[in-house]
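If I may wish for something, please sit down with the protein I am sending here and say whether tokens and residues agree:
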Amino acid sequence: MRKPVVAGNWKMNKTAGEAVDLARELIPLLQPFVGVERVLCPPFVALGAVAPLLKDTGLALGAQNMHWEKSGAYTGEVAPPMLAGLCQYVILGHSERRQYFGETDENVNKKVKAALAHGLTPILCVGENLAENEAGKTAEVVTRQTRAAYAGLSADDALKTIIAYEPVWAIGTGKAATPAGANAVIGLHIRGCLSNLYSPSLADAIRVQYGGSVTAANAADLMAQPDIDGALVGGASLKPQEFAAIVQASVRVGS
């Protein structure tokens, strides 16, 4: 049974001090749900402040992005060695990075390889935008992004990754994909792509989250789907009680 993983992407919110306050509020709310991997992803400037708070709590820390180079003249960027040892996870290829900062499939692939090389677990985001969805190109886009992200990765490395299916049209809009619709995309196109690249057993082993307007109200229906293994949560992760409810909804029956 795949262990669900719920990650809270705080995006460009919270100063270091505010992040500490939020983490302190979240820790006791999230600790009971040991059947779920729980990850907090504050902004870069707050990682150092939040990290010691999570020690020995069962909660993990994640970054929201990184560069693929170890060091160099890349003003404003953060390198993998700067994150290694500080956090355990890193979100890569988020639609906002692709949309606003010109990230390409090739760049995302470089970042995934760099993260794995430095002992970080990538949370790889894939998903179609509204125009692509309405044009019936969901399968094409999601398959292309998945295939490109895993180019050159061994099966062993692929198993160390997590995928987040985030339909762009659902992010921050309040309009989530239907549970059955999200499950179908993950099962047919994401796991289907991985099955073709590697094997059906590997495709079945990799955890795939859903992200896009996940709330306490819709989390249980989403998490009940057999191919959805937790969530990548945006706005709701800034609301402690709501985020805790989403984590609770992600606990597998019998775990």
